[in-house]
Specification:
Layout (H helix, E strand, L loop, with lengths): L6 E12 L2 E12 L3 E5 L6 H9 L6 E6 L8 E2 L10 E4 L11 H11 L4 H14 L15 H13 L5 E5 L7 H18 L2 E6 L2 H7 L2 E6 L2 E6 L1 H6 L4 H6 L4 E8 L2 E4 L3 E4 L10 E6 L5 E3 L6 E10 L3 E7 L7 E6 L9 E5 L6 E4 L3
Parallel strand pairs: 3-8, 3-9, 6-7, 7-8
Antiparallel strand pairs: 1-2, 1-4, 4-5, 9-10, 11-12, 11-14, 12-13, 14-20, 15-19, 16-17, 16-19, 17-18
Helix pairs in contact: 2-3, 2-4, 3-4
The structure holds adenosine-5'-diphosphate and magnesium ion.
Length: about 350
């Protein structure tokens, strides 16, 4: 995927309500050909409704869903097409396999319904089982497979129809942690290998970050930011994104040219990026940018409440007088401070992200 890759799918001002609930609220997005795109947000923010609208199982109230025409051809208005005529496949959150059918029959089912010839079906099923690494399980029944293997069968079934766009709704949520990590890599490899554009829905930010080329963060039916994982993390557009992606220390105050003036704590350094001196603002500092320093460099001073060891790194939580939440700092290896110690904290000004306060 490159920046110049054309849009495969364009959503413009898409809105869908259920009664008083705006499940999808004025969503505009471009999904590029061959990208691995993630829709990320908390439960209930509208991810499934958006996916179902793209697939055609939900009728939006307003807005457009188009595939821009290539080589001078006109745009395709997907809203005018029933689900089965859209070049799209949706893999449901609960991907039910047929329990009485073998793996290969499960995968072949959709192709047989399209009345493809027997030999064509056989070769395509064989190919796709090879792609997902299940050739030796072709004759097995779903009950004889592990969770991860069943997931692969569902993927094979979705890919074998060669959609241009594959939509996956929380595809890995049924798997335990370790298998999930494996399948994240597997999904990424698959997407690359088969050259199909993937849109994966997840509420798990680490999952989205580990797989996607770009991520749309959603909240209350609205897209908050669309960016690469790195840009979302380093340049969150608002406090929701900063809070949802990774962990962060947030300080409320008023915007100043060199940072944010926080009552009780003073001027905390940050890069404002924009004007609006005096307006309500939040300064966000990631735990890994929060450094333990000597007294002469201190921006904040407090007492160590707790240290936690996570294997390769440790987190220390510091009680800073005048600030309600503990301030957290991540260190490589084991923490070099002990509980109860007095510590000084500081960060580089360009590691302080200044955002407009949200009500
Ligand atoms: N068929 C429906 N009828 C009524 N409300 C619905 C329906 N589908 C979704 N909703 C509501 O729309 C909102 C978004 O739901 P959904 O798209 O399932 O979110 P997500 O997939 O992000 O968890 C929620 O408030 C949900 O309760
Ligand atoms: Mg959902």
């Amino acid at each position: 995927m490159t920046e110049t890759e054309p849009a495969l799918l364009s959503l413009a001002h898409l809105t869908k309500s259920f009664g008083d609930t705006r499940a999808v609220d004025d969503v505009s997005l471009d999904i590029r050909a061959n990208e691995f795109f993630a829709l990320l947000g908390p439960s209930g923010c509208g991810k499934t409704t958006l996916l179902r609208s793209i697939a055609g199982f939900e009728q939006p109230d307003s807005g457009s869903i188009t595939m821009p025409g290539q080589d001078g051809k006109p745009d395709v208005d997907l809203r005018a097409l029933p689900p089965e005529r859209r070049p799209i496949n949706l893999m449901f959150q609960s991907y039910a396999l047929f329990p009485h059918m073998s793996v290969e029959k499960n995968v072949a089912y959709g192709l047989e319904r399209e009345r493809l010839g027997k030999s064509e079906v056989r070769s395509r099923v064989g190919e796709v089982l090879d792609t997902v690494g299940l050739t030796d399980k072709a004759k097995a029944r779903p009950a004889q497979l592990s969770g991860g293997q069943r997931q692969r069968v569902a993927l094979a079934r979705a890919i074998v129809k060669r959609p241009r766009l594959l939509l996956l709704d929380e595809p890995l949520s049924a798997l335990d942690r370790k298998v999930r990590a494996e399948m994240q890599l597997e999904l990424k490899r698959l997407q690359h290998e088969v050259g199909i554009t993937f849109v994966v829905v997840t509420h798990d930010q680490e999952e989205a970050m580990s797989m996607a080329d770009r991520i749309a963060v959603m909240h209350d039916g609205r897209v908050q930011q669309v960016d690469t994982p790195v840009d979302l993390y380093q340049r969150p557009a608002n406090t929701f994104v900063a809070d949802f992606i990774g962990s962060s220390n947030a300080f409320q105050g008023t915007r100043q040219p060199a940072g944010v003036d926080v009552p009780g704590l003073g001027l905390l350094p940050g890069l404002p990026g924009g004007d609006g001196t005096g307006e309500a603002a939040v300064l966000v500092v990631r735990p890994e940018d929060m450094q333990v320093v000597d007294a002469d460099r201190a921006v904040l001073t407090g007492e160590v409440l707790d240290t936690q060891f996570f294997g390769g790194r440790s987190t220390i939580a510091v009680a800073v007088p005048g600030h309600a939440a503990p301030v957290t700092a991540t260190q490589q290896g084991t923490a070099d401070v002990v509980r109860g110690a007095r510590v000084h904290l500081a960060w580089l000004p360009d590691k302080g992200v200044v955002l407009r306060a949200q009500e």
